[in-house]
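We emphasize that the prediction below concerns an isolated chain of 95 residues; any contacts that depend on oligomerization or on bound cofactors are therefore not represented. The input was used exactly as deposited, without trimming of termini.
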Amino acid sequence: MSRKLKTFDASEYLDDSETIAEYLNAVIETGDQALLLSAIGDIAKATGMQKIANDSGLGRESLYKALAPGAKPRFDTVFKILQALGVSLKISPQH
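Result of the prediction step, given as a token string:
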């Protein structure tokens, strides 16, 4: 008997601001820009792409393009998306 496994989708677990913040902090610690954009995309999906597009002032298609694999969005675009997601960046010294 074979079992069919469901593909993991992080957006299904991002249902509160604390979980979202922890998820982003864990991804930022990796230093991987592509992974960070993917994580932001997961959060935007969980929150609702249209809502994030409206709240960020970006078009929905622009939002999808900015978060697509291999995209190189401008920092101000990422910053707008983060603000729309209700999270902020915090800078601390490396240890």
